[in-house]
Design goal:
Elements: H1 7-13, E1 17-20, E2 23-26, H2 32-45, H3 52-66, H4 72-76, H5 80-90, H6 94-102
Antiparallel strand pairs: 1-2
């Protein structure tokens, strides 16, 4: 009997959704090439002195990339703690990281 790995089923199970202000925003899954680009950017920026405003802009862009349907208005109305919680959730520090950030 042949073994089968059903990637369609696995991909469906791993979906994440951000709920904010009564609306739901599905997280975009990264392709391998997108992951490589993000990793290369992170490596390039490592050790680089960034101002606080530059760091926050980077965080906002990360959330926009992960949740492309999330409106700018809602995103910019978040507190820094909420922004960090969403990033933790998107990075798969996941629900545990999100719970810790709430404490």
């Amino acid at each position: 009997m042949a073994k089968m790995l059903n990637m369609d089923e696995i991909q469906e199970e791993q979906k994440k959704v951000l709920k904010l202000g009564g609306s739901e925003y599905p997280m975009k899954e990264l392709s391998v090439s997108e992951f490589i680009k993000l990793t290369q950017k992170a490596e390039k920026d490592e050790g680089k002195d960034m101002t606080l405003s530059e760091q926050v802009k980077e965080l906002i862009q990360m959330v926009k990339d992960a949740f492309p349907t999330l409106e700018d208005k809602k995103l910019k109305a978040l507190s820094l703690q909420q922004l960090n919680t969403i990033i933790g959730f998107a990075r798969d520090i996941g629900e545990e990281g999100a719970k810790e950030a709430k404490k």
